[in-house]
Amino acid sequence: MKFLTKLSNMIMEKCLPDPYIFVAILTVLVLLLGVVLTPSSPLDMVVYWGDGFWGLLSFTMQMVVVLAAGHILANSPVFKRFLSSMASKIKKPSSAIMIVTFVSLVACWINWGFGLVIGALFAKEIARHVKKVDYRLLIASAYSGFIIWHGGLAGSIPLSIATEGHPFEELMGGVIPTSNTIFSPYNLFIVIVIGFTLPLFNRWMMPKEEDVVEVDPSLLIEEEQKFPPAERTFASWTERSSLLTILIGLIGISYLIYHFTTKGFALDLNIVNTIFIILGIILHGTPQRFLAAAQQAIKTTSGIVFQFPFYAGIMGMMTTSGLAFVFSQWFISISNDFTFYLFTFYSAGLVNFFVPSGGGQWAVQAPIMLEAANVINADTAKTAMAIAWGDAWTNMIQPFWALPALAIAGLKVKDIMGFCLFVLIFTGIIISVGLLFL
After folding, report:
1. With contact defined as beta carbons under 8 Å apart, do 119 and 83 qualify?
2. From CA 115, how far away is CA 107, in angstroms rounded?
3. How many Cβ atoms from other residues are within 10 Å of residue 289's Cβ?
């Protein structure tokens, strides 16, 4: 395994382009495939791309906020001491890899946005304390927990079909409770097996001591915030006063209490962002410190701002041209009642390269796969979860979702993808077994 991961990392470092180059190549590839495999003309495909280009605008903003707010929270004095205290108890590189993987898995099972940020921040803090730990594998381990998100409490597909009035209620015969999806035997098997074995697998990928790539701890030290001297003005007083912080904190906490008491443990990306922002405001103490941390944090979001629209354009081409339908039909044509869930999973993994959004992929694939499930009398709930796991699976080698973690860590996608490729293979076997035999 040490030889294989070393070889994989060498190949990725030499061949895998920057995420922007990757999405640019995908854009051209999808356009050409649409022209060849569908009735669409080149002009049609260009129009589909342009019409879809801003289709993820609100989601892009959500991702910018989750990354920036996570940074703000992590740079607060209290949170820094908390992460540092946890990380200081870890002494061995092997323990560091396993613990950060497990923490990321649990956090992503609760909520994927929370898990993406917390896993990367914790890994970065560990790198400051633990000597001779491979920084690339540490960040890859933090990201690997993301594999579990669509089988967890915030999985968009199982939560969508558990909501009355969901778009595919007729095809699925009504509302599907989470007992048939998130808490079904096959899903719990997949989640539990990955949860207990992935930390050990990531530890197995640890390189030889002479091949370890450490990070210089000085590069992980955040620049100390410097503030101009106080002046005897109203503006200067309000910037340094904790009064506004207390008032905004009370408003935010009151809303969160209302939300959770009326809606239960309902975590979506907006609520996670609200929690991060309110905690960041409170823990920084004054508006001046909060705004300084925000200014520093926003620098890490450029990759998301300028790459996500290209993925939205790809989604527009995939859905409007019918290219996603073509891909799904290929897998349906080779399926039978035993292999249907497995090939649904694989087809979703393929489509996820071009439509890296759980909600977007569900909208594209659900009509096709659910109709096929009804024809062969397959379980529509399990079909939905096969799509969900396919969407989560190939995120391991899709730069789209790695961008937030990489921005926090200060790495490039090629630095971690050599490890993530083997996580893809390992987890793919577990998911396949769960879908085939349970």
Report:
1. no
2. 4
3. 23
Q: Which residue has the higher pLDDT, 412 or 196?
A: 196
Q: What radius of gyration, in Å, describes the C-alpha atoms of the chain?
A: 23
Residue 168 has a CB neighbour count (10 Å cut-off) of 18
Type of residue at 24: A
Asked if residue 206 has pLDDT above 90, the reply is yes
Q: Is the model's pLDDT at 300 over the cut of 80? A: no
Number of H helices, E strands in the chain: 22, 0
Is the separation of the CB atoms in 344 and 76 below 8 Å? Answer: no
Q: Is the pLDDT of residue 420 over 90?
A: yes
In which band, very low, low, confident or very high, does the pLDDT at 225 lie, cut at 50, 70 and 90? low
Q: Cα separation of 333 and 340, whole Å?
A: 10
pLDDT, tens only, 47-93 = 999 999 998 788 788 878 877 887 788 778 888 788 889 999 999 99
Which pLDDT belongs to residue 136?
93
Average predicted confidence (pLDDT) for the chain: 88
For residue 23 the two structure tokens come to 């999405």
- Nearest Cα to Cα of residue 212 among 4, 426, 2: 2
Whole-number Å distance between alpha carbons of 148 and 164 = 25
Q: Quick one: DSSP state of residue 48?
A: H
The DSSP string of 272-320 is HHHHHHHHHHHHH-SHHHHHHHHHHHGGGGHHHHHHHHHHHHHHHHHHH
Distance between CA 350 and CA 328 in Å, rounded?
Answer: 9
**Residue 379 confidence (pLDDT) above 80:** yes
Long-range contacts of 247-252 (CB under 8 A, 24+ apart): 248/278, 248/281, 249/278, 249/281, 249/282, 252/277, 252/278, 252/281, 252/282
Q: What is the mean pLDDT of residues 145-168?
A: 88
